[in-house]
Each structure stands twice: as structure tokens, then as C-alpha cells.
Amino acid sequence: MINPPHQHHDDVAKRLKRAEGHIRSVIAMIEAGKPCLDIAQQLHAVEKAITQAKKILIQDHLDHCLEDVVGALPRDQRAPIDEFKAITKYL
Predict the structure, then answer these.
(1) How far is CA 1 from each of CA 4, 21, 32, 64, rounded to the nearest angstrom?
(2) How confident is the model at residue 4 (pLDDT cuts 50, 70, 90)?
(3) pLDDT digits (tens, 9 = 90+) for 30-83
(4) Is the Cα dihedral 85, 56, 23, 45 positive or negative?
(5) Closest CA to 19 of 46, 39, 41, 38
(6) Which of 21, 49, 50, 87 has an alpha carbon 20 to 30 Å from 43's alpha carbon atom?
């Protein structure tokens, strides 16, 4: 089953393509014998890009899918859902 793209899938794909470019750069740096500090900085950029892509994907999924399942709830019953969505930002 193919799911339709969520609102931020394009942004996630852009971030992952950026990470892919960083990974290529890291490989080239290693093969060229560049300093470890420079390589570590690039690896850090890769990590950050992938982590941010993951966060956006998870938040978008929750906003899209969780809301579809839960539907409209009275404000007093939404608190656990809203709290769950908020806490996932710390993944």
C-alpha cells in the first residue's frame, strides 16, 4: 500500500539529499587523507541533517495520521494527544 506524501516529505527528501552530499564529501576526505578534525566536522553535519529529517518525518506523520485517527475531540480530551505530539520533538 502506497501512502500519499505528507506535507513535509519534500523537505525531508531535500535534507536527506543534503546528507547524501555530506557523506560523499566525507568519503572523499577519508580517501584523500584529510585531517580527522575536518572529517569529524563533516560527519557531524551528516548526523544533524539525518536527525532533523527524522524529526520532521515523525512530526509530520503524527500531525497527519494521528489527527486522522483521533479526529475532533473536546479540548479537555486533547491534552494527552497534544502532550504526546509535543514530547516527540525531543526524539
Answers:
(1) 10, 30, 44, 17
(2) low
(3) 999 999 999 999 999 999 999 989 988 888 888 777 777 777 777 778 788 888
(4) negative
(5) 46
(6) 87
For 62, the grid coordinates are: 503524527
Tell which residue, 45, 11, 8, has the closest CA to residue 25. Answer: 45
Q: How many residues are present in the chain?
A: 91
Q: Are 19 and 50 in contact (CB under 8 A)?
A: yes
- Rounded to an integer, what distance in angstroms lies between the CA atom of residue 24 and that of residue 21? 5
Alpha carbons 87 and 18: distance in angstroms, whole number: 27
Residue 7, helix vs strand vs coil: coil
Closest CA to 48 of 22, 71, 24, 73: 22
User: What's the pLDDT score for residue 1?
Assistant: 45
